[in-house]
Amino acid sequence: MAAAAAAAAVGGPQPPQPELPAPGLSLDKAATAAHLKAALSRPDNRAGAEELQALLERVLSAERPLTAAADGEEAAAAGGGGGPGAAEEEALEWCKCLLAGGGGYDEFCAAVRAYDPAALCGLVWTANFVAYRCRTCGISPCMSLCAECFHQGDHTGHDFNMFRSQAGGACDCGDSNVMRESGFCKRHQIKSSSNIPCVPKDLLMMSEFVLPRFIFCLIQYLREGYNEPAADVPSEKDLNKVLQLLEPQISFLEDLTKMGGAMRSVLTQVLTNQQNYKDLTSGLGENACAKKSHEKYLIALKSSGLTYPEDKLVYGVQEPSAGTSTLAVQGFAGAAGTFGQLDSSDEEDQDGSQGLGKRKRVKLSGSTKDQSIMDVLKHKSFLEELLFWTIKYEFPQKMVTFLLNMLPDQEYKVAFTKTFVQHYAFIMKTLKKSHESDTMSNRIVHISVQLFSNEELARQVTEECQLLDIMVTVLLYMMESCLIKSELQDEENSLHVVVNCGEALLKNNTYWPLVSDFINILSHQSVAKRFLEDHGLLVTWMNFVSFFQGMNLNKRELNEHVEFESQTYYAAFAAELEACAQPMWGLLSHCKVRETQEYTRNVVRYCLEALQDWFDAINFVDEPAPNQVTFHLPLHRYYAMFLSKAVKCQELDLDSVLPDQEMLMKLMIHPLQIQASLAEIHSNMWVRNGLQIKGQAMTYVQSHFCNSMIDPDIYLLQVCASRLDPDYFISSVFERFKVVDLLTMASQHQNTVLDAEHERSMLEGALTFLVILLSLRLHLGMSDDEILRAEMVAQLCMNDRTHSSLLDLIPENPNPKSGIIPGSYSFESVLSAVADFKAPVFEPGGSMQQGMYTPKAEVWDQEFDPVMVILRTVYRRDVQSAMDRYTAFLKQSGKFPGNPWPPYKKRTPLHPSYKGLMRLLHCKTLHIVLFTLLYKILMDHQNLSEHVLCMVLYLIELGLENSAEEESDEEASVCGPERCHDSWFPGSNLVSNMRHFINYVRVRVPETAPEVKRDSLASTSSDSLSSLQNSGTAQVFSLVAERRKKFQEIINRSSSEANQVVRPKTSSKWSAPGSAPQLTTAILEIKESILSLLIKLHHKLSGKQNSYYPPWLDDIEILIQPEIPKYNHGDGITAVERILLKAALQSRMNKRIIEEICRKVTPPVPPKKITAAEKKTLDKEERRQKARERQQKLLAEFASRQKSFMETAMDVDSPENDIPMEITTAEPQVSEAVYDCVICGQSGPSSEDRPTGLVVLLQASSVLGQCRDNIEPKKLPITEEEQIYPWDTCAAVHDVRLSLLQRYFKDSSCLLAVSIGWEGGVYVQTCGHTLHIDCHKSYMESLRNDQVLQGFSVDKGEFTCPLCRQFANSVLPCYPGSNVESNLWQRPSNKSIQDLIKEVEELQGRPGAFPVSISSETNLSKEMESVMKDIKNTTQKKYRDYSKTPGSPDNDFLFMYSVARTNLELELIHRGGNLCSGGASTAGKRSCLNQLFHVLALHMRLYSIDSEYNPWRKLTQLVEEVNSQQGNEEQQPEVPILYHDVTSLLLIQILMMPQPLRKDHFTCIVKVLFTLLYTQALVALSVKCNEEDRSAWKHTGALKKNTCDAEKSYEVLLSFVISELSKGKLYHEEGTQECAMVSPIAWSPESMEKYLQDFCLPFLRITSLLQHHLFGEDLPSCQEEEEFSVLSSCLGLLPTFYQTEHPFISASCLDWPVPAFDIISQWCFEINSFTERHAEQGKALLIQESRWKLPHLLQLPENYNTIFQYYHRKTCSVCTKVPKDPAVCLVCGTFVCLKGLCCKQQSYCECVLHSQNCGAGTGIFLLINASVIIIIRGHRFCLWGSVYLDAHGEEDRDLRRGKPLYICKERYKVLEQQWISHTFDHINKRWGPHYNGL
Fold first, then answer.
1. Which end of the chain is more exposed for a tag (fewer CB within 10 A), N or C?
2. pTM, 2 dp
3. Around Cβ 952, how many Cβ atoms within 10 Å?
4. Buried b (16+ CB within 10 A) or exposed e, 1094-1133
């Protein structure tokens, strides 16, 4: 190596220490660098330059690293020492040193940064990055900002959203080409270039020398590493390996770009300098390595199908002569060869694999494309070759980021854009071959969107590099690779080719990046203008569009169902929308003014040419091939949309851009075919083609497509209809819809092309289509705002909509720049004009509503337009929904009670250019059809529906509204006799034709038809014959014949060559009507006119004779001002009346005739002769009807019963406000409680051998443990400083206390002194329903066998209550007992308290009542045991084992009474933390505490407490032998009684008693415990105050000690406590530091009294609740301040004779069982003996006053963004990675990874684990990236919904819309309520198992 380096450096002085190995060099890199820098700074720096070259040659030799990587043993030889990476690192180190010129690299970076004129942000990001887009500030729709720039700018009130980048992007802040300067952030607002000093020359001097070598080295690596993939299977592994090796180098370049503008401009110089490139890469030197590298480069070029033009043809610089297109129109024959070869390799072999063996691809042989665009590449700079390799390596992310990071440099931006364009064709080829086309597409767009969004740049490249030619050509080439022969129309001889939608290219949207670039550049006016002016380009483009014309052809399956449903239609619709429609909308957006007429003419001209070619290619004459349809006619749609634009915006004369009649006739055929096929599909005629055909029909009208599909089609048909002969058009419609045969006066007919069951819906389809065609004004004169309003009304009428779904459903032009932007001002203003906002409500059932918009009343009244609704519905049910809502509105507002018909809506006036459309309403063909249908409906022929009638009337009304001119009243017929001798009606005006009577009609009927017999009668009567002669002959009519005739006329007229033969008919399908032999001719006598038919219909509809009476006879006013609101809404009768009124208004003749008809009393419609058979069916019908009515009645009755039951029994959904069924009946005369079993329905008492149980749900709960002691609610942390520490929670405090007690006292005694269950306590709740336990077991068996159940696990004992379906998991046995007993027990006895105390002690001493021998074990006791087991298993082991000796019975004892405590405490919380509201709360009615107590008591009595240790003794007796305790020092003492938790003592005492308990025993226990509680309060108070206060109290109390009620005076007692405790060390420890802590309050008697009451209240509340449950007494309600006195008197603590005048004193409740001072001193002695040794702990363990506030979830910030910004990038504390799905616990604020495998422990993912630790199995998590809340309950989870809504009251799940979200306080309150009341399981319905994977 060194030798090579030396050879290269001959001539210059040798580098220092030349022969030393590399490590040696490294010692002195800095010195070398400094020396070189100095040498280069001299004026004559040639020597220095050569020296540097030599050094670089050696350091950056390209041969070393890659070969080393390939085979490791050379690594050592390379001198890098140790592995392939070392050499590269060494090289990088050198580069850094040299750049810094001897100084430190970091200082160098800082120095360069100082010269950065940071005007642009340019931050580049990759996929999944969270960025912002502000439509208010953006000029280009692609504008995006990084979060930092967005938050630093001011976007208040703007239309912005947050989004997750899909392909990556770059921040546009500071770029005024893309966004308005007002939106720049603070950093980039300052145009700072002015005050940035000039860069000193020597700072970057070294960089200019070093970087070219470095980049060349990189390119050599890329050349080396690329091996042409064999057999077309790119070895991605190899490419990735090379890229990994180059990672450090590219990262180094990337870091350079981040140094700012100064360094970027150096890099730009290096990358674009052609001389440098030539010198280094030409491969002409003697360096073998360089030669080899150059060869590899040439091979790579060749293999890419590119030539390296050695001759002087320099790409793209042939000066194009002004005006002509650079697409030189050349035969392309020579070039086709190369193209063919290049293609064949990678395409032919896929042919078979696509399963398209029979569809051979089509290659186009000739075309007008410039070959050089596709095949020639010449690289002239590093930048060009770097891009070449970037493409070759399929756009590695690092390279893309580097190339984009350079973009803020303007010079680079231009150079790079040109390079990108130059490589465009090559990009397309690589993309097509790529296996990772998705990733690659994203990366391409990531680059191109940065380049082409800038109008100035796009214009420059268009002018200098023929960007448009390149793009169009490349797109054309791309699609040519997947063409197949079109099978439309003439399968054999068709010359048309279409894209094959099954190809990967279309299926995977591979064309997407190129099309999206094209759309992007067409959005710039200057570029689009060039495109529209360039005829050559337009021709090519239409050629491209025609590839999609007629793709994805559907052929109707007539025999069996298609076996394989192809899903290619997705690809087809996407392709038409993206590749054809979006560019079209882009072009249209520039044709808005009169000056652009020329462009429209160009497009229309070439479009028509392409269409003509298409008709010729598919061999089309006049009949479409039957049973085929394609939904894709982009050429028709281009033509239609440009026509529409021309008339609407450019004031072009429509006729000047329309073709001749023959072409119009052809143009209308295919769009009409689609409309007919839609009707066929909805009539189920295509069922054999599978579901996908329905999918196509829906997509065609769906909101994202309708603008580019159905709307242009209908518009084109409207244009054709307005210019063609109306009779021809109407007959074509009925023929296409296949209902011609149906339109006969005869009652029977034969339809040759349609089954009878489809006739009705096809006829409806045809009429509906005509109505839409004639009423729709979308392109015929409505303004944009009117359109928007109509669309919005249609959507709102179908259903109430959320704001976002409205935005989604209202079709906007697909091109973002086309004007109506969703969310724009006009959108919001129209919305507020037509709709009312319904705020999001929360239903108690748990389903959360979103904010909805609903139509205003006046919209229903005036604007509801059924036609628009029908046009826009994807599902037919939506039309029904709209009608139902309309009906409901009319009923509610009292406008119409019955079933209304769709209202008739006035239309906006037609644009004059389309006036011809209305001729359809005034043509005889339509009138004949209407007449026939009215007649058929009147005569009850089959297959006609109300819908048909509705449409017929609608068409008549339309005709009257749009009659040409007021008809002259003279009878003189306008048209001469020669016009009407053969036709039904005299003229073509509907107004006059309405009154024309038709007497006879000749029809063709089957011989079996009833008309045939009548015919012979008619001919005999002379009368009929004479009338026949009078009327000329009877009318015959055949639609098809009419159409044929017209067509021939038109053809003959338009054929310019006189001798042209009439074209042959292509179709044999439509032979002359009646070709079937068994048809015969009959003549019917009709004698009706349209008017008379209408009046008879009125009678028929109303069911009354003579029901129609002309209204103007009563009120002549009607004719003057006919707009009467009473006709606006109504049914068919109203419609007929409205039409008759309009007819009368239009002509006096009509008015007269109507009156005449009404005068002739119409004979009743002859009753049909009813045959026996018919009678039978009628009877059957009647019977059925009656049965149906009976059934309805029963159902209604059943429903109401069910409803009333639901209301009384089981309003599961809101546990707060309902009265459930009584569990026990309350009549005293019944001796035993009676229960109903909800399974077998029997009722009876619960007995030992057949026990009844309550349906209960057991769940572990940590809600109690979450109570905190401060009022200030905890907030969710949103900065690093705010952390939540759980030290102040109730659970933590109780934990600390228990472990402290266990340190100093005997374990078994500790476990009786406290309660557990603050965390993981078991909460029991019931729905109040009971069942026999044996019934329950069989119910569970049946559930186990039923596999369909999901959401709960039967194996874990879970089920739903058979009656109310509430979730449950156990059954709590009801203890057999009577109600009357309780009355006995409650009688007060007059025993003294001393007697009662003795009785209590004796009762507790008795052994448990559980049967010992197996034989006597009853079912009841078994169930009691099993439910106890359930209760234990409900919570985790750690929440029930607190003893030091595992499994000790004390544990169970503690656990059991704590369950009771948990349930009482939770009920207290549900009541709001106090009992002021009183009453038997609903929770009480539905409570199962009574039953629970029985179960617990039975089990507790198994563990009798040794009477020695029973705390009862300590409370009620004075112990003599005080000294004995001190004797046994070695044993731990018992817990002093003053350290005991009184509420726990209460539960122990009560559960130790035999059940049921007597009331006086209960009161006795409470009285005794109250004395202890009061003493604890006094002790706590004494410790709270300071020394002076204590001594003062000591004295004042001592003075009163001998008064009579000293034992009931708190002053005396307090002074005694102080004096007793002063004997010990409790007060000694105080010292000085304590004094600071004690609050310096002056204690007044009032404040002391308040303190004592507050201390005792929690105990009194729990006790009162307990009394309420055990003895069924109601709780009194009271004010908060008197709660203490009310509860104490309710508990019997207050003597009954207590006077309430003077202020209440808590001490008066005391009733001491033994002399107070003795027992107090005994209790204090225990404490003193403990504080002798542990004064600190002695004080800490004193019972403090309870200060717990109600539990709350964390308080959330107002705006969701604050949470999102902090958490979505936060690293997880466990795995220190940023989680993919971060979540945060709303109970404690812990940050967790959802589903993260990184934090999994023993197969539990982190969220599940946390839910067990934090909530004992219940977790409430906010998912940061989705804004939704997820609930974990045990082994199930559910999505709860979101508590953050946007300004329109909507959730934004997954943050898809990215609009700002705000907290919804009501929802959060509901969530908290469900958490506290433990009702998640009942209210939320959608649960699923999580398998520990969350």
1. N
2. 0.82
3. 22
4. bbbbbbbbeeeeeebebbbeeeeebeeeeeeeebbbbbbb
Residue 584 makes CB contacts below 8 A (sequence gap 6+) with 634, 637, 638, 641, 708
Pick from 1082, 1078, 1073: nearest CA to 752: 1073
Q: Split the chain (1894 residues) into runs of 10 and give each run's mean pLDDT.
A: 38 36 50 73 70 73 44 35 58 79 79 77 87 88 89 88 87 87 84 63 76 84 74 60 82 84 85 83 65 80 65 36 35 33 36 39 49 76 89 89 89 93 91 86 90 90 92 92 88 88 89 92 92 94 95 90 86 94 91 89 94 92 88 96 91 90 93 95 92 94 92 96 93 91 82 85 94 93 89 94 90 53 71 92 69 94 93 91 94 88 88 91 91 90 87 92 58 36 72 85 72 44 36 58 68 48 36 48 82 89 81 71 68 87 85 85 47 57 69 70 54 41 41 82 86 92 88 86 81 90 87 88 91 91 74 84 89 72 52 79 64 57 88 87 78 89 92 75 65 85 65 75 46 85 90 82 90 90 82 80 75 86 74 44 79 90 90 82 86 68 74 85 87 82 82 94 91 84 92 84 88 92 93 91 91 89 92 92 86 84
Q: Where do runs of H (alpha helix) occur along 226-273?
A: 236-257, 261-272
Contact 1813, 1865 (CB under 8 A): no
Q: Which residue do the tokens 């797109």 mark?
A: 475
As a dihedral over the C-alpha atoms of residue 875, residue 880, residue 884, residue 887, rounded to 10 degrees, the angle is 130
3-state secondary structure of 133: strand
CA atoms within 13 A on the CB side of 100: 19
Contact 744, 942 (CB under 8 A): no
Distance CA 1334, CA 1721 (A): 57
Look up residue 873 and give its two tokens.
């519905």
Backbone angles phi, psi at 508, to 5 degrees: -95, 10
Count of beta carbons in the 10 Å neighbourhood of residue 1545:
25
CA distances (Å), 302 to each of 307, 342, 426, 949, in order? 6, 11, 12, 72
Cα 452 to Cα 448: distance, rounded to the nearest angstrom: 6
**Helix residue ranges, H only, 304-409:** 333-353, 371-375, 382-392, 397-405
Whether residue 1420 contacts residue 1251, with contact meaning beta carbons closer than 8 Å, is answered with yes
The type of residue at 212 is P
User: How far is it, in rounded angstroms, from Cα 262 to Cα 273?
Assistant: 17
- Six token digits for residue 808: 């989604």
**What backbone torsions phi and psi does residue 1892 show, to the nearest 5 degrees?**
55, 20
- Mean pLDDT of the residues in the chain: 78
Q: How far from each other are the two terminal CA atoms of the chain, in whole angstroms?
A: 58
Assess whether the previous peptide bond of 1556 is cis (omega < 30° from 0). Answer: yes
Q: Is 485 helix (H, G, I), strand (E, B) or coil?
A: strand
| Residue 1787 burial (CB count, 10 A) | 26
Strands 169-170 and 160-164: unpaired
The helix (run of H) or strand (run of E) holding residue 1019 is helix 1010-1020
Structure tokens at 417: 């854009």
Q: Are 1327 and 1234 in contact (CB under 8 A)?
A: no
Judging by beta carbons within 10 Å of its beta carbon (0-12, 13-18, 19+), is residue 333 exposed, middle or buried? exposed
Q: Please list the residues that pair with 160 across neighbouring strands.
A: 134
Strand residue runs (E) in 799-847: 835-838
Instruction: Identify which of 1544, 1507, 1545, 1518 has the alpha carbon closest to the alpha carbon of residue 1403.
Output: 1507
The pairing of strands 998-1006 and 1079-1088 is antiparallel
Q: Is 1201 left (phi over 0), alpha (psi -120 to 50) or beta?
A: alpha
Whether residue 1093 contacts residue 1108, with contact meaning beta carbons closer than 8 Å, is answered with no
Q: What are phi and psi of 1509, to 5 degrees?
A: -90, -5
